[in-house]
Amino acid sequence: MQNLPKPLKEVVDQLSSLPGIGPKSALRIALTLLKMPRERANGVGQAVLDLRENLCLCDECACLAESSPCSICADPTRDTDQLCLVPEWDALLAMENMGIYKGRYLVLGGLLSPLDGIEPGHLEVERLKRHLGSGRVSELILALGATLDAESTASYVKNLVERDYPDVRVSRLAQGIPIGAEVKFMDKETLKQSLVHRQKV
Q1: DSSP class per residue in 131-161
Q2: What share of the chain in percent tops pLDDT 90?
Q3: Predicted structure pTM score
Q4: Using CA atoms, how far apart are residues 80 and 182, in angstroms rounded to an integer?
Q5: How buried is 2 (Cβ within 10 angstroms: 0-12 exposed, 13-18 middle, 19+ buried)?
Q6: Residue 1 pLDDT class (50, 70, 90 cuts)
Q7: Cβ proximity of 62 and 107 under 8 Å
Q8: What's residue 145's pLDDT?
Q9: Which CATH topology does 64-200 take?
Q10: Average pLDDT of the residues of the chain
Q11: Could you give the residue range(s) of every CATH 1.10.8.420 domain in the chain?
Q12: Is 170 in a helix, a strand, or coil?
């Protein structure tokens, strides 16, 4: 990649810094953008800029949305007594795609990972406490996955709830999700079975 013209190299370097995109893929994407009609390439660039400008975090659930509250939190038909805790927004999307869960969500913003320096203060723990302290939540469903970080996060949350909110029942997705897997990569049927057969923690 050393012999690329500077403008092309800059685009390749930026793209290859994204997760899941290596230098060869980044070069293919950059060349595709270069071959596009100017209007279409401008549209791609503008869409990226608009992504930053037109999205916000929902004040209620911390998911990405165009406005706050998001459409899920603003929906009066959703059950307020069930709160599903997910690590990231894409896990929320996976849960919603099942079409059977009718409660509310909270996006934790990641998982506890002491080795990576991610502690409770880096996550939406205070927002979780506000929800649990409201008196509306009777069940907290942990949909965090089955990785080691997910297990430590689940243990932390379970201890927090048992200590400070004893009236809230804590459940988790059934272990139809294989160990080491993340919620966002699960197929719809596995997720559905995991939710339906969730277990008390």
Answers
A1: HHHTS--SEEEE---SSHHHHHHHHHHHHHH
A2: 63
A3: 0.75
A4: 25
A5: exposed
A6: low
A7: yes
A8: 87
A9: Dna Topoisomerase Vi A Subunit; Chain: A, domain 2 (3.40.1360)
A10: 90
A11: 6-54
A12: strand
Give the closest residue to 110 by CA, choosing from 95, 97, 125, 98: 125
Contact assessment for residue 110 and residue 122, using Cβ atoms and an 8 Å cutoff: yes
Nearest-CA neighbor of 1 among 189, 22, 18? 22
Contact 186, 150 (CB under 8 A): no
Average pLDDT, integer, range 153-158: 95
Out of 1.10.8.420, 1.10.1200.120, 3.30.450.70, 3.30.2130.30, the CATH code matching 6-54 is 1.10.8.420
Distance of alpha carbon 69 from the chain centroid: 17
pLDDT at 85 over 90: yes
Q: Which residue type, as a one-letter code, is found at position 34?
A: L
Note whether 75 and 103 are within 8 A (CB): no
Report the alpha-carbon distance of residue 23 to residue 39 in Å, rounded: 26
- Position 178 pLDDT exceeds 80: no
Q: Quick one: pLDDT band at residue 175, thresholds 50, 70, 90?
A: low
